[in-house]
Description:
The protein is mainly beta. The protein is built from 11 helices and 45 strands. Strands 7-8-10-11-16-15-14-13 form an 8-stranded mixed beta sheet, with no helix packed on it. It has an 8-stranded mixed beta sheet with strand order 33-34-36-37-42-41-40-39, with no helix packed on it. It is elongated and about 90 Å long. It starts with 12 loop residues before the first helix and ends with a strand.
Amino acid sequence: MKTPTDLTQELPEDLLMAVLRRLPPRGLAAARCVCKAWHALVDALRLLDPFRSSLAGFFINYHELDFSEFFFRPPRDGAAAVSGKIHYVTPAEHDDTIVLHHCNGLLLFWSYVVNPATRCWAPLPLLPSEMGVGPSDMNVDPRYIVFDPPISPHYEVLIIPPPPRHEMQQLEWPPSPFVMHVFSSATGSWEDRSFARQGAAIGTVGYLRELAKPLFSTMRDYSAYWHGQLYVLDQFVMRISLSNCTYQAFQPPVHVGTRDQELCLGKSENGVYFASFDHRCRLRIWILNELHGEIEWVLRHDNNLDDMLPRGMYDEEFQGPWIMEDVNYNFYHSTSLTDMEEAKEKDAFEWNSDNENTLDSKLRVRNHCNGSIEILGFHPYKEVVFLNESVDRGLAYHLNNSKIEDLGSIYPKHYIHLASEARQARLVGTMESTTDLTQWLPEDVFVAVLRRLAPHGLAAARCVGKAWRTVIDARRLLDLFPPSLAGIFINFFDLEISEFFFWPPRDTDTAVSGRLDYVAPTENDDTCIMDHCNGLLLFCTYVANPATRRWAPLPPPPPGFGHDHIVFDPAISPHYEVLDILALPCCTTGVELHHEWPPSPFIMHVFFSTTGNWEERPFARQGDAIGTVAHLKQRVNWCTTQKHPAYWRGQLYVLNQFVMRISLSNCTYQAIEPPVNVARRDRKYCLGRSENGVYFASIDQHRHLRV
C-alpha cells in the first residue's frame, strides 16, 4: 500500500510557521507531537516561548530547618502571589515538609505532590519496600517528578536505583535493561518499568564506587527536564525518555569527584546547562548539544568572578527586590505576614532579568574570592545563574552581559535559633543527603555485623533499604533462623476437620497442635484449611496462627467471590493479605470465547489486614496471555481439593491450568506455562516452595517422579 505523502513537507518553512503561529497554546503543543519534523520545527523556531510562565520564585532547602523556604519577587499590581506555605496539605508523615524535586510548577514531596499556584495537592502512595521508612531515611533512593502540561495533564514520579553497594563489582553500570520504579498519576499506581540503554555503559560498579567517594551525596539531586527528556546528574548524566522507555548515559563536561568546585545541572533558555564554579571563582557554563544524534558539551561562558562578587559589606537597609517568605519562622511563631508586607511596600521596584541590572551602588566589593559562593540553580527561561553568598545574599549572574545583580537577603529569619548546625543551603533538586557509611564497608565486614543481629533485628535490617535486603538475601542470613517444620495439615475427603501430621517435639510444652479449640468461628463447619503461608492458616471466615493460638475473623468477600490464597511475610510486615483469583469464566458469564485469558487488567479482590476491608484491585499483565477462553476451556478442568500455591520473595505463584506469578506490591502478574501438560489424567502435579525457590513436581502412573 502506498504511503500517504506529508504535504506539509512541500510548504516553505515561512508559510508553515505562519500557519503554526495561528494556533492556540494547546493546539501548538499538540502540533508539536504530530511528527519529528513538526517537533523540531516548533522547537527550533521557539513558537511555544511566548506562552511560558514567568518565574515567581524558587524554593531552597536549608539544613536543620523543617520546611523548604520560598525566595520570591512580589507580584505587581496586587496579582495573586504564589506562597511557599503548604498548610492546606495534610500529609501522613509529620516530617514530610521538604521539597524533594520539582518540574514545571509541581512540587514533589515524600508522600504527595503539590501545585502551589492552584493550591491543589494529591497523595503519593509509597512503595511496599518503603513501608517503615520516612523522607529523612538515609537509604531512600532519589526520586524525580516529570510534568509537561502542553503534552498531558498527568505527571509521573521516577525512582532511579543506585549501583549495588557490596556485590557484583564487575557488573556494568548502568545496566540494560534498567528497571526503575515509575508512578503514573493516570493510573494512580507504581510499576516496575524497564528502560533500554542506548549506547555504552559508563563502567563497572566497582569503577563507579571509586568515582563516587568524594561528592556522591552532593550530586544526587541535580536534574533538568527538556523537550520530553529527563536529565539527571549523579556520577554521570542520564538522559531518560519515559515515552519510549529508553535512556542514555554519558559523561559531564568535568569530573564530578573534585572537591574544590560547585557543580550544577539544570534547564535554562536554550536547553540543558551545566555549571562549574571552583575555589578561584572561575565560573564555566556549558550547553548540551544533541544535534544529529551526537552528544556534545559546548562551552557557553567562561569568566572569573573574583573582582565582581560582594563579600559581606552590605547596607542593612537595602532589602533587594526579592523576599524570603520565612515559612519556618512563621510556622513556629504563628505570626502573620506583616514583615513580608512591609518589605513589599519598602521595595516597590521589580526585578526584571531583561534589564541590565548590576549590583547596587550601596554594596562594597572585596578583592578576592573566599570560597563562600555556591550555585543555587538556573533561571528556567533566561540565561541567568542564581548564586548565594554565605547564605546571606541571593545573586543573579547574567551570562549575556557578565553582570551580577543583588536580589536580596536569603537568610531565614532567626535561622541561628532555628538551626543548630552551620548554615548551608541548596536549591530544590540539589539538597545534600546524608552519606550511607555502610557502603564503604567491605561486604564481609558488613555481613559479619549483620550476623550478630537477633532474628527480629535481622528481619528489620532487611527492610532498611534495597541494598541491605539484597545482601541479606544473597548471603541467606535469615536461613540461619528458619522455623523448623512442626508438621503438615492434610484435608481428607468426607472429613470435616483438617488433620495434622507431625513429628512429636522433645518439649511437649512447645508442641503445635492441629486442634483449633481456641477459635470461635461463625460457621460450625468452617474447620477445613483453605490455604497457608509462613505459619498462618486460612479458613473461610477467619485466619489462625496455631503456633501462637491466636486468630482473627475474616469478613465475607463481595457476593459471588470466595477467597483462595493468603500472603504473609513476617520479615517485611506483620500484616497479611487474602487474595481471590477469578476462575476461567463459563459461557453464562457473558465473556466472549475469543477473549484472551488471563485478561489485562485482571480484577482481583484483595483483603488487607491493615484496613480490615476487601477492595477490588486491577493487576496489569506482564507478557502475553496463555490463550483465549475457548482454548483454555478445551483443557481438562482442574478439579481438585488440593491447593497449589507458593510464596517466594514477595511473589505468589499459583498453579491452575497454568502458573500465575502475582506481585501484590506493584499490582502486576505474569502467566507462565508449567513444565509439563497439566491436563493429562495419568499424572499428579504439585507446585510449592522449597529450599531454593519455587518447585514443580510431577509423578506418573509408573511412579516416575520429576521435580
